[in-house]
Amino acid sequence: MRHLLSISDLNKRDAVLILDTAVELARASDGPMKKLPTLRGRTIVNLFAEDSTRTRISFEAAAKRLSADVINFSAKGSSASKGESLKDTALTLQAMGADAVIIRHGASGAAKRLADSQWMSGSVINAGDGTHEHPSQALLDAFTIRKHLGKGKSDLDGISVAIVGDVLHSRVARSNVLLLSLLGAQVTLVAPPTLLPVGVESWDAKISYDFDSVIPQVDVVMMLRVQAERMSELYFPNAREYSRYFGLNRDRLKLMRQESIVMHPGPMNRGLEITAEVADSARSVIVEQVANGVSVRMAILYLLLAGDSLGAGGAL
Amino acid sequence: MKRYLLSGGSLPDGTKTDLLIDDGKIENISPHIADVKAEVIDISQSIILPGLVDLHTHLREPGKEDAETVLSGSRAAAKGGFTAISAMANTSPVADTAGVVEQVFRLGQEAGYCDVFPIGAVTQGLLGKTLAEIGAMADSLAQVRVFSDDGNCVDDPVVMRHALEYVKKFNGIIAQHAQEPRLTLGSQMNEGIISSRLGLKGWPAIAEEAIIARDVLLADHVNSRLHICHVTTAGGVEIIRWAKTRGIQVSAEVTPHHLLLTDDLATSYDPIFKVNPPLRTQTDVMALREGLADGTIDIVATDHAPHPTESKECEWQEAAFGMLGLESALSIVVQTMVESKLLNWSEVADRLSIKPAQIAGYSTQGQEIAVGALANLTVINPSKSWRVDKDLLASRSRNTPYHGYEFPGVVTHTFFKGIATVANTEIVARDSV
């Protein structure tokens, strides 16, 4: 495999390999030498056409720990605005000799467009495209769930996960439904009907509008960010009502199973979809997700780029 | 003027015959015509159709001549077997005055490859607020009878009502682009299973159907003629079928691409498949084919929509809507409707020539093939096939979704008022036209 564009590009073995590789890389970089020489001499471009701090620095840290050269390319705007077109950006990166491009873009499918075009020859890693997918986030989420609840198994068989909030606009939800179900977990989507896409019934997930009844049934409660502008777009009446039905607060925390965990891809809207006391509680693994993100992204870069020294395809 | 003897072809009803063209007219139809002065063209494997008539063409001139001109679009039309096309009003400036429609009309005459009938805007600037100079356009040299804000929906019911009423004065017709704007704000593709997975904003079928339903009721109420552009949904077909049984004066068109392609093509995120209205599901495609077969949908119209390369060589959501249609339309009808036995050749002639000319009032077009009629004719060899190569199209643009497709049916000759515009599959040079 040359690119990571969508979780649907992976089979179960690929996904487990990424998680296992992340475990090993985490162990290796816990040693006295934080940096591994694996990608020395390789050029990796962070092409971020949309604001993102955590994903960009997570990929940057991952690449640097593998000794790659990292170029940050912040291409705000797109062909519609006064900015450079995706094509011209790609041609520029090709001319600079990028071995891989990590792309974050506001347009769904932008990563695939880049990979399928003849504009550049390097690997393309999707770091979030519009409301489509965010595969590395799903992989780090699966990594985190497996670490806490996997009981030594390689997959997520028998684990149940609730994904709660703005599923309609969430690339994290799309990637997670695909990946978690691929790994054997049961996914339940919890959202007001306005924030579920038409067609969601075809997804490999159960649907519920009733958060309270779902909480005691699941091992993982994964909250999604809800953007304030959704109110003006008439998806729900106001923040208070949203929080009342779909926010994770102290009362709902009490409904959770003994061992269950709380996750959030960030950035959080404290007080809207999650209260501060839940975010900072012992059940929350939100900060750990960030740390795991670096290991998982190291694994992705390693498997895509470190195949053999001639670069004839990665290990995936 | 040149005399042509079409030898051994079949008329749409299957009759084998020779056909003699002279002085712009059909001079003789009978088996075994001998004529020493005529150029004899052997068409023994082919079918003669009345010249095709397109009610929905974007020619981009004036304003976007890098995408298409009246001349290049006319040549593409001839190549596809058309002898008449209808230039949509969404040019720059908009065709909302007599001046612009006369300019387009004149450019069509100068090009000389087919009739170019301008369609006038319903509202000034296509903005949906105030009526354009409909009367002036009707009285102009272009004698506009079809009015459309295509690209935009005339969504204000009061504006639509008065437009429908106003054109009754000269037996005009309003061609509606049925798209409820609020339900399609930022929409990118058909709303359904595929859009839910791709994270592209959905375009619900109801946004089209709600306007169709409203407008057939309005047309009924004011007793005027309504034409529905590019129907794409099974529900839309059903509403039109109902309206026709009620005797409402509604006609409808379907595009070749909506007869063939489905929304799963968006999975590639290649905006070559991005079109307004969007590609729908297989269920819709089958309903459209059935509707065209039973006459609920009256005609096929291309919605030929040329765009320069850079408008498609980008992210899906940044790309322009639309695809080329003129050069592949008849072949797609052959593949989807004739080979599946949903239409016979007489019905093809009806849906692509006779009916569209009737709806628009193009009296010199869409005539039955008969002695004395104007020789607007298309010769198609249905047993031959061709492979689409975007770089070999006559259109100035390259945005065909069919690059590499193998299609049945080759247009070998097109005659416009008795003059060959296409001969042996090649477009005839301009000075000979």
Give a short summary of the structure.
With 316 residues, chain A is α/β, with parallel strands linked by helices. In chain A, 38% of the residues lie in helices and 14% in strands.
Q: Notable features of this structure?
A:
heterodimer, A: 316 residues, Rossmann fold, 2 domains, 4-stranded parallel beta sheet, globular, B: 433 residues, alpha/beta, Urease, subunit C, domain 1, TIM Barrel, 5-stranded antiparallel beta sheet, 11 helices, 21% strand
Question: Could you characterize the architecture of this molecule?
Answer:
With about 325 residues, chain A is of the alpha/beta class. Chain A has two domains: about 5-135 and about 290-305, Aspartate/ornithine carbamoyltransferase (Rossmann fold), CATH 3.40.50.1370; about 135-290, Rossmann fold (3-Layer(aba) Sandwich). Helix content of chain A is about 40%, strand content about 15%. Chain A is built from twelve helices and nine strands. In chain A, strands 7-6-5-8-9 form a five-stranded parallel β-sheet, covered by helices on one side. A four-stranded parallel β-sheet of chain A has the order 2-1-3-4, sandwiched between helices. In chain A, α2 links the parallel β1 (about 45-50) and β2. In chain A, α1 (about 10-30) packs across α12. The longest helix of chain A has 20 residues, at about 285-305. Chain A is globular and about 55 Å long. Residues about 75-80 and about 310-315 of chain A have low confidence and may be disordered. Chain B is α/β, with parallel strands linked by helices. Chain B has two domains: about 5-50 and about 370-430, Urease, subunit C, domain 1, CATH 2.30.40.10; about 50-360, TIM Barrel (Alpha-Beta Barrel). Helix content of chain B is about 30%, strand content about 20%. Chain B has eleven helices and 19 strands. Chain B has helices spanning about 70-80, 100-110, 135-140, 155-165, 195-200, 205-220, 235-245, 255-260, 280-295, 330-340, 345-360; strands at about 5-10, 15-20, 25-30, 40, 45-50, 50-55, 80-85, 115-120, 145, 175, 190, 200-205, 225-230, 250-255, 300, 375-385, 405-415, 420-425, 425. In chain B, strands 5-16-17-18-19 form a five-stranded antiparallel β-sheet, covered by helices on one side. In chain B, strands 9-10-13-14-15 form a five-stranded parallel β-sheet. In chain B, β18 and β19 (about 425) form a beta hairpin. The longest helix of chain B is centred in the middle third of the chain and has 18 residues, at about 205-220. Chain B is globular and about 65 Å long. The model of chain B has no long low-confidence stretch (mean pLDDT about 95). At the A-B interface, α4 of A face α5 of B.
